[in-house]
Write a structure and sequence with these properties.
This protein has helices at about 25-30, 40-70, 85-135, 135-140, 145-185, 190-195, 200-235, 235-240, 245-300, 310-350, 415-420, 445-450, 465-470, 480-490, 490-495, 515-530, 545-560, 595-600, 605-615; strands at about 375-380, 390-400, 405-410, 430-435, 440, 450-455, 465, 505, 535, 565, 580-585, 585-590. With about 625 residues, the protein is α/β, with parallel strands linked by helices. Helix 2 (about 40-70) packs parallel to helix 5, helix 5 runs antiparallel to helix 7 (about 200-235) and helix 7 (about 200-235) packs antiparallel against helix 9 (about 245-300). The longest helix has about 55 residues, at about 245-300. The structure holds adenosine-5'-triphosphate. Adenosine-5'-triphosphate binds near residues 1, 140, 386, 391 and 415.
């Protein structure tokens, strides 16, 4: 059977995680993610306002502390008129500011959290909606782990940005600007002296920050690779056990983890260096400023360079604030860059072309009801992921409504591909397929697929009850319809043998059903769907003869009055079909009824028949 599901192994991780330089273009591209914030702009603006207020109240504090020192130093006359002239008075005022600051911070977190939670929910929903409507080739080119990490880690990264990083970034910038303004006002001489030590510090911090970002990206990449190992092995746990490769997988995962730790330690080394650099530079800078400022305090009051003690205290505090925000900005820069990368990867998926499904039906038109005449004409096909291999060559055949056709032939001949093409999952490389005289491409995709039912080789049941799984065929069906479908699919008996009947949970949290039972549920699903065209992929795994009989009679029931294409593995089951197409190497090599083909001496079908007869 062609692998039409998610590509979970085999291919290399597609170039993941583009490294995003903070350029004008990348910034503009990344900013498009903000359209998800737009619906929540009012709480966002409220959050920004509160952020501004809390920054202002923080910036007022050093000034007030300076006033306290001056009052304690009997220099109350230097204070502006609105400031109380006693130590207790200023302390009370300061306390009031602190309370306000607490209130503002609470409000800021409240609003920003709302914005980030809601917009991240919207991103996840939109992304998921996009993912499920993307065409199959998209999934064949990527690993499941890679796609799910878009929904998990990339979105989480953006959530961090919306809720924390952005606010923090703005706060740091505000602190920096307001801090510089305050100190300039206090003493431009001392400020110039202080700022002279700043540019090299800022430059070094940026350089440092850049190498840290690269390293932490490596850590993330390594971690993502180890996660892919976990996902693959858990998905294919049966194969892992069958090949007794537990130890191999454990050591593969262990090696991956070691690489992650190595990368993380290397990056932490740089981060440590960065932090200690900032500490030394800031403290060194502060002491230098303190020394210089103290010499101004010593000067007589008449000297224009004179500073009061309180001014020096607030100056030093502002200097600390400025130093801290410069240090913080380096880190913010890295975080913003990584979330730009994340948002780019998300936007990349959102920009992919969806299949045109669930389009609104033009007003006044009835749902498409196909009769089931099928015509393949010179169909040629190559899978988009393997453009150099022509899988189908010049396939032409026709089926009249209600006829049953079986495809037989060796493994890899192209049988599943022929069937897949009818669902318009892929674009043809040549030729055409028509249903009821309409080109496939002219039919509405959702309507087309609603008219086709499939019973795959391996039935995938979704976690949930048996009822939900049958209802997947037609969600609005009544209880009576579900029971009727289960009966006609020979499934009712075993369903009723479970204490909880149709409510029995299947899949991960519920009971495991046998292959034959799962198939009969798939048949019940298809009966409920009541499609004009039926695609059946016979299970290759042999069922016991009792189960096989039940499945076969359910299939016969299902096929009544429908155009049916059967991919047959056991020739005994297809004697009654109207036409058999023998496929080999992507071509139809023989066609006719069982009687026509069985008697030919050199025919492939006749040979296959003899082979199966000998084997059984
Ligand atoms: N999704 C895919 N992408 C690329 N190549 C594919 C894909 N699915 C199938 N093929 C290739 O197309 C060819 C035909 O495969 P197909 O599954 O149609 O054969 P089949 O006759 O149904 O085989 P089987 O009886 O084993 O199910 C094979 O060479 C296969 O490797």
């Amino acid at each position: 059977m062609a692998r039409s599901g998610l590509n979970s192994s085999g291919t290399d991780v597609v170039a993941d995680a583009p490294k995003t330089k903070l350029t004008k273009e990348s910034f503009q591209r990344g900013l498009r993610i903000f359209r998800f914030v737009l619906p929540y702009r009012w709480p966002f603006i409220a959050g920004l306002g509160l952020l501004l207020l809390s920054s202002v109240s923080t910036m007022v504090m050093p000034k007030m502390l300076g006033y306290i020192v001056n009052v304690a130093n009997h220099q109350a006359s230097t204070l502006p008129a609105f400031v109380p002239k006693t130590v207790t008075g200023i302390a009370l005022l300061l306390f009031g500011v602190v309370l306000l600051q607490g209130l503002f911070s609470f409000g800021r977190i409240f609003f920003f959290s709302r914005v980030s939670e809601f917009s991240v929910r919207d991103i996840r929903r939109t992304l998921y909606q996009k993912l499920v409507t993307l065409p199959i080739p998209f999934f064949e080119q990527r690993r499941v782990g890679e796609i799910t990490s878009r929904l998990t880690s990339d979105v989480a990264n953006i959530q961090d940005t919306f809720s924390l990083t952005l606010a923090e970034f703005l706060r740091q910038i505000l602190t920096l600007l307001a801090g510089v303004a305050f100190i300039m006002w206090e003493s431009w001489r001392l400020s110039l002296f202080m700022l002279a030590t700043f540019p090299p510090l800022v430059l070094l911090a940026f350089l440092f920050g850049r190498s840290i970002r690269k390293l932490s990206k490596q850590t993330q990449d390594e971690l993502a690779k180890t996660n892919v190992i976990v996902e693959e092995t858990l998905q294919g746990i049966n194969s892992v056990k069958a090949f007794t490769s537990e130890q191999h997988e454990v050591s593969r995962y262990g090696a991956g983890l070691n690489r992650t730790v190595k990368a993380a330690l290397k990056s932490s080394l740089f981060r440590g260096g960065f932090v200690s650099f900032i500490i030394v530079a800031i403290f060194g800078g502060i002491f230098l400023v303190l020394w210089r400022g103290a010499t101004y305090v010593e000067l007589p009051a008449a000297d224009p360079r004179h500073l009061s003690m309180g001014d020096l205290v607030s100056f030093i505090l502002y200097t600390m604030f400025i130093g801290a925000s410069v240090g913080g900005l380096g880190e913010m820069y890295g975080k913003i860059q990584s979330s730009l990368g994340a948002s780019e990867r998300i936007l990349e998926i959102l920009d992919e072309q969806s299949e045109p499904v669930h389009l609104p039906r033009p007003a006044g038109t009835a749902p498409l009801k196909l009769r089931g005449d099928i015509e393949y004409e010179h169909v040629e096909f190559r899978y988009p992921t393997r453009p150099d291999l022509t899988v189908l060559k010049d396939i032409s055949f026709s089926i009249r409504a209600g006829e049953k056709v079986a495809l037989v032939g060796p493994s890899g001949a192209g049988k599943s591909t022929i069937v897949q093409l009818l669902m318009h999952v892929y674009q043809l490389s040549g030729g055409s397929i028509r249903i009821d005289g309409h080109e496939l491409s002219a039919l509405d995709l959702t309507e087309l697929r609603r008219n086709i039912g499939i019973v795959p080789q391996e039935t995938l049941l979704f976690g949930g009850s048996i009822r939900e799984n049958i209802l997947y065929g037609r969600p609005d069906a009544t209880e009576a319809d579900v029971i009727d479908a289960a009966r006609r699919a020979n499934a009712l008996q075993f369903i009723q043998s479970f204490p909880e009947g149709l409510d029995t949970l299947v899949g991960e949290r519920g009971i495991k059903l046998s292959g034959g039972q799962r198939q009969r549920i798939a048949i019940a699903r298809a009966i409920l769907k009541n499609p004009a065209i039926l695609l059946l992929d016979e299970a290759t795994s042999a069922l016991d003869s009792e189960s096989e009989k039940l499945v076969q009679s359910a299939m016969d029931e299902l096929m009544q009055n429908r155009t049916s294409i059967i991919i047959a593995h056991r020739l005994s089951t297809i004697r009654k079909v109207d036409k058999i197409l023998v496929i080999d190497g992507g071509r139809i090599v023989e066609q006719g009824s069982h009687e026509d083909l069985a008697d030919s001496t050199n025919g492939i079908y006749a040979n296959l028949l003899r082979l199966q007869f000998e084997l059984s």
